[in-house]
Every structure is written in C-alpha cells, then in structure tokens.
Design goal:
183 residues, globular, 63% helix, mainly alpha
Length: 183
C-alpha cells in the first residue's frame, strides 16, 4: 500500500465519513422491551431464529444451536424447562451473545453471578439495554448527553463492557468501510 497524496487523503476521508454514515443503520437498533421478548416457551431452533432476527440486521453475529446449548451446559443460563426457553432465558442470551465479543465466558459468568446477587433478570436486562442503547448513540455521535455515573461497581463494570462492545463494533465498521473504499 503506497502513500497517498494529501489530495487523495482528503478525497477518501469525506467518502469514508459519508459512506459510514449511510451504512450506520445501527442507530436504528433497539433491543426488544423486556415484555416484548417471547414468554410462551420457544424450542431451541425458535430461540436461535429469534436471536438472529433481533441482532443480525445490525451486528455481524451468527448464533447457532450449539452456542445456546453451550451457554446452558456452562451454567451461564438455566436449562430449558421441558425443552422450552422463556423470556428470562432469552434476555440472558442477548447479554451473553453481545458481551462475549468483548470478554471471556468466565468473565461473563462472574458478571451474571454479580447481577443475580443484585437484580432480578428483568431489572438487569432493562438496565443493560438502556445503557447499551445510550452508549451506542453516544459513540456513534447521535447523542451528546454525557453518560450517567454507575451506581455501583457492578454497573460500572457492565458499562465498560458495553463501551468496549460498541467501540469494537464501530472500529470494525470503519475498517469494513475503508476496505470497501480501497476496493
């Protein structure tokens, strides 16, 4: 890769910025509200489809039956009830799937243990998605409002994990855009 002239650099930078902004549908991303998550009991394949439908339009994540089964085997999530997964299972899967891009499953297990000591799954999920969406909009420049200070060390840790997830995704998006421009 040779050096580009200043004129070439200036030409590429606006294209990157405009192209990245056009591709950042991520700002349309919203987690389902806790009460919108299915609680009728879904089989494994239905859970995988639901998770992929929720995350794949925005995040480059392919969720498989094996992944979900492994989270259960590792006791990150309680086992299915008569082969059916419910709202709390799915809320935990969303947290795990996004967090594992930033931290190990061992660390996720620690986070989940801390979470369970302080919050019911519903409350933890609502706090997570609220913080995630706010951090997402801050990092992508759609909001300028400063993030509130976490109430405790658990929340501070989760906030930093979320910041890492979103920044990692942002960086990967920028590099994909650069690859597209360099063709």
């Amino acid at each position: 890769m040779g050096k580009k002239s200043e004129q070439e650099k200036m030409k590429t930078q606006p294209e990157l910025s405009a192209g990245a902004e056009a591709r950042i549908e991520i700002l349309d991303f919203h987690f389902p509200a806790y009460n919108e998550i299915p609680d009728v009991g879904l089989y494994l394949k239905q859970v995988v489809r639901y998770l992929n439908d929720t995350l794949n339009p925005y995040f480059d994540i392919a969720i498989t039956d094996t992944m979900i089964s492994n989270y259960v085997k590792l006791h990150l999530v309680p086992g299915a009830v008569k082969k059916l997964y419910y709202r709390d299972h799915i809320a935990l899967f969303l947290f795990i799937i996004l967090s594992k891009s930033m931290v190990s499953l061992d660390h996720i297990q620690t986070l989940l243990k801390l979470q369970q000591e302080q919050y019911e799954t519903k409350d933890a999920y609502i706090r997570f998605v609220t913080a995630f969406e706010k951090i997402l909009r801050n990092i992508y420049g759609a909001e300028k409002e400063p993030l509130s200070e976490p109430e405790d060390s658990y929340q501070k840790l989760v906030k930093n994990v979320i910041i890492g997830i979103v920044q990692k995704y942002y960086i990967e998006t920028c590099f994909r855009e650069l690859d597209r421009i360099d063709g």
